[in-house]
Write a structure and sequence with these properties.
This protein is α/β, with parallel strands linked by helices and about 250 residues long. The two termini are about 15 Å apart. Helix 4 packs across helix 6. The protein is built from seven helices and eight strands; from the N terminus they run βαβαβαβαββααββα. Strand 2, helix 2 and strand 3 form a beta-alpha-beta unit.
Length: about 250
């Protein structure tokens, strides 16, 4: 495992010129999935019945992962919704009031450690959750998740700034003044900059064709952890290649 913190400077929010127009190809990737043998479970190891909690990305809900959860069930796992609702809320509150309860329920119902899969910001939430409760987590798989810093398309950063304003209006003193920024001192940010628990297997799936997040900040620096795919950022939720990698990584391969 990698020594020390990977998320070197969470304050580094930087706009990067990325080909966001390529994200329109997500519909093509979705159509490929329906015709892939992977969709029917061919070529991937059978699951052992353990729980897999899937966490949606920024501005996403559990709904767009319905297909992934259905596939996980077909290959032998017990998938769970994250139940965080729309991912446009203080991540610290999402973990404290929703993710922790979901993980606890999955752990109790299956009697074994839980796998987490997170897309983009959902991957950051998954990593923070694992850092806070490693005794309940078997592995974390992230899809297009910023791990070293926040570098994304300017449109995404502008939208995040608006979400931050809404969070502060909604919660007032219920959140820290720097909520939803890299300057915040909440448990969420602290969990990202601390050492990732050695007992938790990790996988970071990234793409050079990501039109939303700079792929360079998705790397841990460990070639056994970092896996490159050909996909758009949004398409990672539907890519047959990503599904195949998930199946093998869940099985510890």
């Amino acid at each position: 495992m990698i020594e020390g913190s990977v998320f070197k400077d969470p304050r580094e929010y930087r706009s990067v010129p990325l080909p966001i127009w390529q994200e329109l190809l997500v519909t093509v990737e979705l159509s490929y999935l329906q015709f892939s043998p992977i969709w029917w479970g061919y070529g991937v190891p059978r699951g052992d019945g353990s729980a897999v909690v899937v966490v949606p990305g920024f501005m996403g809900t559990d709904h767009y992962f319905d297909q992934l959860r259905g596939w996980l069930e077909r290959i032998g796992y017990r998938p769970y919704r994250s139940d965080i609702g729309l991912n446009a809320e203080c991540p610290n509150l999402l973990i404290r009031h929703r993710m922790n309860q979901t993980v606890q329920r999955a752990w109790e119902e299956t009697g074994r450690k839980v796998h987490l899969i997170g897309h983009s910001l959902g991957g950051m939430i998954a990593r923070a959750t694992a850092s806070q409760a490693p005794e309940h987590i078997e592995s974390v798989i992230t899809l297009g998740t910023p791990i070293r810093a926040i570098r994304a398309h300017s449109a995404i950063l502008r939208l995040a700034a608006r979400i931050r304003e809404q969070i502060l209006l909604r919660h007032g003193t219920g959140v820290l003044p720097d909520c939803y920024t890299g300057r915040c001192t909440c448990d969420f940010l602290k969990s990202l900059v601390c050492d990732f628990p050695e007992s938790v297997r990790q996988t970071s799936i990234y793409s050079l064709f990501d039109g939303i997040v700079d792929w360079k900040v998705c790397l841990t620096g460990d070639p056994k952890v970092d896996i490159k795919v050909s996909s758009t950022h949004l398409g990672m939720a539907f890519s047959p290649l990503v599904y195949s990698l998930i199946g093998h990584r869940l099985a510890g391969q």
